[in-house]
Prior knowledge:
This protein is an alpha/beta fold and 261 residues long. It has 3 domains: 10-127, Nucleotidyltransferase, domain 5 (2-Layer Sandwich), CATH 3.30.420.10; 137-187, no CATH class; 201-251, no CATH class. The chain has helices at residues 56-62, 66-69, 75-86, 96-110, 125-132, 137-145, 155-172, 180-187, 220-226, 228-235, 241-251, and strands at residues 10-17, 27-35, 41-47, 90-92, 122-123, 201-204, 207-210. The strands form 2 sheets. It has a 5-stranded mixed beta sheet with strand order 3-2-1-4-5. Strands 6-7 form a two-stranded antiparallel sheet. Strand 2 (27-35) and strand 3 (41-47) form a beta hairpin. Helix 6 packs across helix 7 (155-172) and helix 10 runs antiparallel to helix 11 (241-251). The longest helix is centred in the middle third of the chain and has 18 residues, at 155-172. It is globular.
Amino acid sequence: MSKLTLNRPLAFFDIESTGTNPRIDRIIDLAVIRMLPGGKQDQFEFRFNPEIPIPPETTAIHGISDADVADSPPFKDQAEKVAEVFETCDLAGYNAIKFDIPMLVAEFKRAAVEFDMTGRKFVDPQRIFHQREPRDLTAALKFYCDELHLGAHGALDDILATVRIFLSQLDRYPDLPGDIDALHEVSNPRHPDWADLEGRLRWTHGEAAINFGKNQGRPLRELVQKDTGFLNWILQNEFPEDTKNIIRNAMKGEFPSPPPK
């Protein structure tokens, strides 16, 4: 860590939550490692009762159930203590800029506890990884086959390279399935909360809800009753066809059911 220069503490943190929407979801687990100038580190862990049910599909991801947090205090009861941990700290975490920071800010706002973001710096190792390690076809051919992609961007050369990479992956990873149905699942992983293929809709407490924009978190059933204009706007614009089909059916009173557990 000799290369790292700190003028003030740097707080690495990770959140587990009831879902991914800061407006409606809640933090249930928070871990912080605070790096201090001079090299010392300290560690903090918090467990919260979200005061809303944890969806079973979310429990399947992080393993935390309603029973696990039943006796834990809600975030608002520990918000002052959490704020002290982050006091004067810059922030860091894997994918933190997209997920963890918005979730944390939303919880402090609900708790009416000041959490001033002014002047804080952010470090995200995921973004550094994506910037520094090429992930294009040429890089994959070099990594898996130790070959240079001399014909890059010619259609035939590109697809020949793709075939070689795929066959090398099958050899390299013994646990990678060999049948197409299973490979389809590996290649097209869907978040368990998604109600459609691209996550424009998500399951929220057993209801399909909007997962973007000003109506994020609102169930389709509510929008059908109160805001069909927004649904019609989706139908008239460039949204995935499966998303539109779900909305069309909902407007006819045919609401989707979540997949079986």
